[in-house]
Each structure stands twice: as structure tokens, then as C-alpha cells.
Design a protein that fits this description.
2 domains; three-stranded antiparallel β-sheet; single chain; 186 residues
Length: 186
């Protein structure tokens, strides 16, 4: 059985879908394309190191070289760290989200798995900007600054502190001289 539908009919059908369904369709098309690419690559005996590390480590999860489709206008670009693992394979880690890490045999497979992981995570959650004001100041003594500026006895208090410091300094100097004298006697 063959189906013959005009391109206009397909476009109208897709446009009639909700934005969520359009996104699901887009993800499905993307995953099928990457799956086909992976199958083609699996047919190759080996993969060169240049192919493995091709491109920039900071890349769009959906692969920046792909053409834009409907629904991509709101797509966000995330930075992904691509790393060759010592035990084999390639890891893809979404920077800033330590728990979002995927491993694959190839770079593309790792990125596809990461994309699926992030899509599943964002399907159940959302990202919102929140400003949080610190309840602590940088200096814990700042709340005492200027506390006694209008106290008439504050100048006398500062004079007493200064006198005490001079007394301690004099005692310290006398002790140092005593130690020096004992050292010269030996």
C-alpha cells in the first residue's frame, strides 16, 4: 500500500500539531537521522582519531551543522565537553550540569545519548532564573561599624585602648631585651 500526499498537506498537518507534539516529531526525526548515521559508521572497520575529535568541544546538542527546522527558533545551545575516555569510548558532559553525562562508542553516539538524557530531564522539569540574595554580609563585624559614634565616653575608651597597647608593647620590648641579654651571656 502506498501513500501519496502533497508536501503542502504534510506542512499543514505538522503546523496543526501542538508545540509539544512538533518538538516530539522534531526529536524523532533527529534521532532517526543520527541513528542512520551511526549505522553507516558502524559499517566502517575503524574510526580515525581526527573523526573522533572533529569539531569544537563546545557544540549544540543537536549538532550545529544540521539545517534548521520548525520549532528550532526556541532551541537553546548548550556547551558540551567531549572527552575520549581511557577505558574506551567517548563521553559527553553538559557543562554546568554535572549529573548530565553520557558515554558512547563515537562522539555522535555520546552526544545523541546526552541529548536524550537532557530531553527526558527537561520533559519533567523546567529551567527558571532565580535571584537569591545572600543573608550574610562579607564581613561579620560590619553590623557593629559606627555603633558607638554618638557615645560621649567612646573617646575615653579609645584612649584607654591606646594606653594599654603602649603598656603591652613596652612589656614586649623589655622581654625581648632580656632574652637578648641572656643570649649574650652564653
Amino acid at each position: 500500500m502506498s501513500y501519496s500526499v502533497s508536501l503542502q498537506t504534510v506542512i499543514e498537518s505538522v503546523e496543526a500539531l501542538s508545540p509539544e507534539d512538533q518538538e516530539l516529531l522534531l526529536n524523532w526525526i533527529h534521532s532517526r537521522r543520527v541513528e542512520k548515521q551511526l549505522q553507516e559508521r558502524a559499517g566502517k572497520a575503524t574510526q580515525t582519531l581526527e573523526e573522533l575529535h572533529a569539531g569544537n568541544a563546545a557544540c549544540d546538542i543537536r549538532a550545529a551543522e544540521e539545517p534548521k527546522f520548525w520549532g528550532d527558533e526556541g532551541a537553546k545551545t548548550y556547551h558540551v565537553l567531549i572527552k575520549k575516555e581511557p577505558e574506551g569510548g567517548v563521553s559527553a558532559t553538559l557543562l554546568g550540569w554535572a549529573e548530565c553525562k553520557a558515554v558512547g562508542v563515537t562522539r555522535q553516539e555520546a552526544v545523541l545519548r546526552l541529548h536524550d538524557l537532557v530531553s527526558a530531564l527537561l520533559a519533567e522539569a523546567e529551567i527558571v532564573p532565580v535571584k537569591i540574595r545572600s543573608t550574610q554580609s562579607d564581613n561579620p563585624w560590619i553590623k557593629y561599624a559606627g555603633m558607638f559614634k554618638d557615645d560621649p565616653q567612646f573617646d575615653d575608651f579609645l584612649a584607654a585602648i591606646e594606653a594599654y597597647r603602649r603598656e603591652v608593647d613596652a612589656e614586649s620590648e623589655a622581654y625581648d631585651r632580656e632574652l637578648e641579654a641572656q643570649g649574650e651571656e652564653k
